[in-house]
Amino acid sequence: MIAFVSGRVAAAGPDGAVIDVHGVGLSVQCTPATLAGLRVGDHAKVPTSLVVREDSLTLFGFADDDERTVFELLQTASGVGPRLALAMLAVHTPNALRHAVAAEDLTALTKVPGIGKKGAQRIVLELRDRLGGPVGDAAADLRAPARAEPWREQVQMGLINLGWSAKDADAAVSAVAADLDGAETPPVAVLLKSALKKLSRG
Q1: Which domains are delineated in the chain?
Q2: Residue 105 CB contacts under 8 Å (≥ 6 apart), including other chains
């Protein structure tokens, strides 16, 4: 596998770039996020993923290692090839995709050209456990409503770790919050038990 290419940007177009690596021009298909950071004549180091087909060798380039990792994970879902995976990353950031899959947000997934409702359902089903939740600063941004009440995030993560879906966990946490209605917040362990009771009733 070619993990990255490093060299001068010889050319850049709407869907890819050519990187001059010691006199060899490597054509790299890129996401918009990658292309935004490339300038002709500048030196660049681009994380890559090599896709091998019977009749072709195609090098895909990314803004960072996380984008490349998500690109490769997306292709483990049935019906998702490299072109569709690249399109998904053109529409959504890696964290936005993680969030959409974890929250079973079919509307977000169907914004990608080539993905219908059934395809989105299949992607959620097959990738939910592989992609994981959002990471880094963007993870905090996606959970912004929970930041005012740290217990919400702790209970939600506890439920997800116990095997509940992100959607069910969100619903249970919201129900527990509604019961509190401004009252003093009990320990997280007590809140977790309350959330589990609500889920078992559901």
Answers
A1: 4-61 (2.40.50.140), 65-128 (1.10.150.20), 150-200 (1.10.8)
A2: 99
